[in-house]
């Protein structure tokens, strides 16, 4: 974990992955579940963004949406944006799909309505285009673009190592299969590369271990193997979905240490999903707190722990064992995360919120800066919260007006940015 200034310096370099107004909905015969409802965040190069919340808050669906792994009956809304900004990747895609490129700032838009590649700076055209800055919107891109990104640019470390590993193939076969598909390695070359990967995640005697089956590995070694599989194609971004949840605290600490080392060695950006605030404090540079499909607070990790503003975040932090004085009963948040099965026209946290007031039942809070000082620092760096109590230095009347004006969930970031541009 870096300090706040380091965390913020990553942001100024521009994001590697940005998610804007992501909405993923599951349509069943009985109901429509807005599992992810207007989520926006960015992950900067070599930064760890922690995503924290209770079960059912939409964390895992957010990660699966990024990789195009949402199963039926789930769908990512076409107006959502998941942008990958690596110039080399953008350039390759732009050369493959020259008719679906739009140039930012171009006066006469030659963009087709189905354009999904945006080039901000670069030169050339068609197969000779060179990209300095740009992005690919994965939501609008054809499946083969998402497939080419999966594994080789953005990879996932799954929560349950036992499920993630195939019990009937040796560990070596599983790693070598990936190396064959993505890097064309086979034979001795693939065996050497697979052993190197196992060694890099701290598995001793890696050559011998390649011929063993997952059930011959301990829980910690299985989780290390899942990380090795994710690293097989040398990705730039790791999506870690509760990678330490099933492990005891000693092994958990070892896995967190391993991820930190790998991040430095390989310049990885990490999206780290967990329900554990203690883990977030250890690994994250910035934090997005999710509740019922929405990001309800976002800040640098230091600021979030020093000055939590959203009542939900405050409740989560108060319920961390060890922070209460000896003999005190540990505070809990009563109730459960609701299933977000209706449009958010109110605060979804209101039934559990100790600070709820009348307007919380009729106004949907958008994510706004917690005070005007934060507003000036730009929305990506700002401390933001989706709560009608903020910005705290505005009158209630102004706050309600502000949240009303932001309209549908997820527009707050755009609105804040627009206000900065004024
Ligand atoms: S909007 Fe109201 S109910 Fe929701 S978190 Fe804020 S104070 Fe609580």
Give a quick set of tags describing it.
422 residues; alpha/beta; 8-stranded mixed sheet; 7-stranded mixed sheet; 35% helix; disordered N terminus; disordered C terminus; binds iron/sulfur cluster
Tell me what you see in this structure.
Strand 7 (117-123) and strand 8 (130-137) form a beta hairpin. The chain contains 16 helices and 15 strands. The strands form two sheets. An eight-stranded mixed beta sheet has the order 9-10-11-3-12-13-15-14, with helices on both faces. The chain is 35% helix and 21% strand. Helix 6 (171-183) crosses helix 7 and helix 9 runs parallel beside helix 10. It has 422 residues and is of the alpha/beta class. It has a domain at 298-421. Mean pLDDT is 87; it is low at 1-12 and 407-422. The site of iron/sulfur cluster has 12 residues, from loops.
Radius of gyration: 22 Å
Physical arrangement of strands within the biggest beta sheet: 9-10-11-3-12-13-15-14
Q: If you average the pLDDT, what whole number results?
A: 87
Approximate shape? globular
Distance between the termini: 35 Å
Oligomer state of the chains in this structure: single chain
Poorly predicted ranges (pLDDT <50, ≥5 residues)? 1-12, 407-422
Which molecules are bound besides the chains?
iron/sulfur cluster
Helical proportion, percent range: 25-40%
Q: What structural category do the secondary elements indicate? A: alpha/beta
Number of distinct helices: 16
Strand content: 15-25%
User: How many DSSP-defined strands?
Assistant: 15
Q: Can you summarize the main beta sheet?
A: 8 strands, mixed
């Amino acid at each position: 974990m870096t300090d706040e200034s380091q965390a913020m310096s990553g942001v100024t370099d521009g994001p590697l992955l940005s998610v804007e107004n992501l909405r993923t909905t599951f349509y069943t015969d009985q109901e429509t579940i807005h599992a992810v409802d207007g989520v926006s965040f960015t992950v900067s190069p070599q930064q760890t963004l922690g995503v924290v919340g209770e079960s059912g808050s939409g964390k895992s669906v957010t990660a699966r949406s990024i990789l195009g792994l949402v199963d039926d009956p789930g769908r990512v809304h076409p107006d959502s944006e998941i942008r990958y900004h690596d110039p080399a990747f953008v350039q390759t895609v732009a050369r493959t799909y020259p008719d679906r490129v739009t140039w930012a700032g171009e006066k006469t838009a030659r963009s087709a309505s189905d354009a999904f590649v945006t080039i901000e700076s670069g030169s050339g055209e068609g197969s000779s285009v060179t990209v300095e800055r740009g992005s690919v919107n994965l939501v609008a891109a054809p499946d083969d673009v998402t497939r080419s990104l999966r594994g080789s640019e953005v990879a996932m470390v799954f929560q349950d190592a036992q499920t993630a590993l195939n019990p009937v193939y040796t560990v070596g076969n599983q790693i070598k299969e990936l190396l064959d598909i993505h890097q064309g390695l086979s034979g001795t070359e693939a065996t050497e590369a697979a052993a190197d990967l196992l060694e890099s995640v701290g598995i001793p005697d890696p050559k011998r271990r390649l011929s063993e089956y997952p059930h011959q590995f301990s829980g910690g070694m299985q989780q290390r193997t899942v990380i090795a599989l994710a690293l097989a194609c040398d990705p730039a971004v790791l999506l870690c979905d509760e990678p330490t949840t099933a492990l005891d605290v000693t092994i958990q600490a070892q896995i967190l240490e391993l991820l930190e080392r790998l991040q430095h060695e390989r310049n990885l950006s990490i999206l780290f999903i967990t329900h554990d605030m203690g883990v977030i404090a250890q690994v994250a540079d910035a934090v997005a707190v999710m509740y019922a499909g929405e990001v309800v607070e976002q800040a640098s990790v230091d600021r979030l722990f020093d000055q939590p503003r959203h009542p939900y975040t405050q409740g989560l932090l108060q319920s961390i064992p060890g922070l209460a004085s000896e003999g005190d009963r540990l505070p809990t948040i009563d109730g459960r995360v609701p299933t977000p099965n209706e449009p958010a026209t109110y605060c979804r946290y209101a039934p559990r919120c100790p600070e709820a007031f009348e307007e919380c039942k009729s106004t949907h809070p958008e994510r706004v800066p917690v005070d005007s000082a934060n507003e000036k620092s730009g929305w990506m760096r700002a401390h933001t919260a989706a709560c009608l109590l903020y910005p705290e230095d505005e009158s209630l009347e102004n706050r309600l007006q502000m949240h009303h004006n932001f309209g549908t969930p997820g527009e707050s970031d755009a609105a804040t940015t627009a206000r900065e541009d004024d």
